Amino acid sequence: MTRRGSLAYYFAAITLGSFFLAVTYYMHFLLSGASRENIGRDFLVTFFFTVMLTVLPMLLCAFLLRRAAVTFRWQTPWPWMLAGAALFLALVQALGWLGNAVQTDRLVVEWWRMALTFVLMGPMLAIKQPWWLPLPAGALTAWLLLRTHRAFDERSSGL
């Protein structure tokens, strides 16, 4: 384990952020009339693909959020949650736009364009849904990232 809990912090960002994002998107699908026949299986599939396709946005958001929180010395949950929601929404929109910008209809595509499209597939799919769906996921993830940051910060200061 690292001294300031970076491994735990970024692992929490990926797993919890993907979980909350999967919950918000799946609840939206259910409320807009999706089949309720196999709810458990469908949610697990949604969560699996969310984890696979949102690694880059989750890591980038967690990194920027931690840097901002340390710089501005945020100690309460509200700045973390507001910044996390806004930051995650902005990153999803920006990365989705970038992914759509590099997409092409040509049959032969350069290797870098294919790799970038694969990395940005999650945000590209997310921007086709209502714009506000990343907000609750970003806020809840930021709150738990604050808890993770505090846990390791207190522990390292006691040494």
Topology:
Blueprint: H1 6-31, H2 39-53, H3 55-72, H4 77-102, H5 111-119, H6 121-126, H7 134-157
Helix pairs in contact: 1-2, 1-3, 1-7, 3-4, 4-7
Notes on the protein architecture:
With 159 residues, this protein is mainly α. It has one domain. It contains 7 helices and no strands. The chain has helices spanning 6-31, 39-53, 55-72, 77-102, 111-119, 121-126, 134-157. α1 packs across α2 (39-53) and α3 runs antiparallel to α4 (77-102). It is globular and about 55 Å long.
Summarize the structure in short.
By secondary structure, the chain is mostly helical.
Calculate Rg over CA atoms. 17 Å
- Tally the helices: 7
Q: SSE order, as H and E?
A: HHHHHHH
Number of strands: 0
Described by the principal axes of the CA atoms, the overall outline is globular
Low-confidence stretches: none
Main β sheet profile: none
Provide the structure class: mainly alpha
Distance between the termini: 15 Å
Instruction: Let me know the average pLDDT.
Output: 89
Q: Indicate the proportion of strand residues.
A: under 5%
**Tally of separate domains:** 1
Query: Helix coverage percent of residues?
Result: over 70%
Keywords:
globular, mainly alpha
